[in-house]
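Case study B.
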Amino acid sequence: MKTRRRVFQFHAFVVTVILLTGSAYAIPAFSRQYGTSCTTCHIDFPKLNDFGKAFKDAGFKFPKDDETFIKIPPVMLGSPAQKELWPHTVFPGTIPGIPQIGLRFNQFFQYTGSSANKYNAAPQGGLGSLQSPLVPNTDFEPGFFSIFIAGNFGSDIAFWVDDDLSVAGLNANGELGDGYLRFVNLGRFFKLPTDSFTLRVGQFELDLPFTQARSINISPYDIYTQANFGSTNQNVNNVIELADAAHGIELSGGHLYGGYHYSVAFVDQNTSGQTASAPNVPSPTGGQVGAGGVGFFSDTNYKDIYVNVSYRFNLEQDPASRHDIQAAGATGPRDHTYLSLGTFYYEGRSDQRFSGLTSGGAAAVISAREPFYRVGGDFSFNYRTFNLFGLYMYGHDNDLLLNSTFTGFLPGAAATFNGGFLEADYLVLPWVMTIMRWDRVQSTADFLDQAGSGNYFSPAGTTRNRYTPGVQFLIHPNIKASFEYQYRPQQALFYNSNGQPVEPFRTNVATGALEFVY
Amino acid sequence: MKHIFMMMMVAAVIVMMSLAASAGTISGKVAGVSGESVVYVEAPAGKTFPAPTQEPVIDQKGLVFQPHITVVQVGTTVQFLNSDSVAHNVFWPSVGGNKKLTHNLGTWPKGEKRPFKFDNAGAVPLLCNVHPEMSGYVVVSPTPYFAKTDKSGEYKIENVPDGSYTVTAWHEGAKNQTKPVAVAGDTKADFTLSK
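Model:
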């Protein structure tokens, strides 16, 4: 069972890395619609500047007088005067005057340090058994070809869909990223302050303190891709990672460019990573898995809850500048000098179904519902074009072990982990971004599970530190070259009788990426 | 007495006719480029002209400088208006190619204006730090004799005193062309610009 878990964990890690690497989006469709450059909303796309945050808050619209900035008039879906006839007519709306479609392509080149040869040289299995492919020192990798559409239907209803059409050079091998409708500023119906209440429905990245899906980094944050698998004596198999796309609804409010911000999401609970559909119980997409339908995304009768609350203190002395979307500067408006503090909490139950017995001895399915939570805090400090931000998270999964009679469960030791990241971004020139990042994950179970497994990600200790300097160049506002060097955690292939790693090493990698959006 | 008055009237008419005869026009076409160009007369050596009192307005509206090209005489004060609900920043990296004359006007709220007096001749490329796609030009003419072409390139500069001048044609992104023009009544001067 542990071997299967390791294999699954390894593949999950690899798939996660592939899917998250560079899964970042900028929106050239907005450039076309408003006749403006990417840099109106982005610092080193896809990282948003304060105006971009306000644009997003407003439902992909200019925060004020949006219609005066649109260069391509929208198409009316019914005259505005039709509103007076409602409910005896369909409430009119608009769609953008051009299809709000953007496309993106990226590709990678990676150099892997010679430590990889330790894996290449270590045989697995018995004599004569076929070995895994060689880990090359250099590798050209086609990345993603992605499509994304986003915009606003005119009545404060925003939409977003992004999908990877191709991954790693294969056709139709991608997946949906975010796909949702966002009903902006619903609070006006309840006479609440502007932008205090917004509803989002669909599939989306959780409102993480710092986005993973639209990060400028080539490699993902380690803590965001940390699942929680217990060690040998535990029964914890929770595949949920904070960076996973969630399905559900989200209530949110406030502004990302200053003051308070909150979000509360109720999302599918699925800790097994499996979709399911019994033959006679169709999912909304129809049919069972593999027979025309895609099955159910929840694997329990519960929903997870995610809460994120933050407050951003803009630090300009002048009140007008402090409260504006961007701060006034001697040479034009710029991002605020600010300190943002926040906290987040995710709670759910990890559901595992076993073949067991009733107390009367009859065959039955018994379920271990292990409550789990993730909790953390974050901060971000910005001064002009320097941004220092970080996040800490603690993960905790209760453990339920099958009793000896297979009729129920006994509490075991909880599986926990913690970690986070600290990152400094400095925009040296408007087209040159430098990055320094430290990722840290502490998980005893990961170490115990991986020790001696011989796979490519075996840690040499309970703590994994990774240091990742990087630099990025905007060749044009929509074309970017990115480089990063990963000083990776120590790894080991062999352990002594005390469980200590023998001759630990690091498999450091240097990665370059080229991408464009249009 | 009546004779004296008649003689003065005749003299005045003669003077006015002679003046009218010495004020000509320069007209022609700027070819080789498409869209609006500017043609202006360079200042004759030692000749100065009083600055106009009119203050043209350049608006920033819908992330666009309006008008795109404004021609003014040296010494003119231009009012820069912001009609947008977003902040802009007006600056220029040079005047007539002279980077030492770079200037940043800063940022101001919607509905307000900020003046600037242009004391140096040459083309002034207007930019916005916040919206790099925004582009406009102030072409500062050293004399009051200038014109903006229509979209077909035709232009006409009126009331130019007869005489010998140097005339310059300017177009966005093209090399200036300068040629001597002897003005005597209606005078033709065509230009062909290249990028």
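The first helix of chain A runs from residue 2 to 20. The remaining cases will be described in the next quarterly update.
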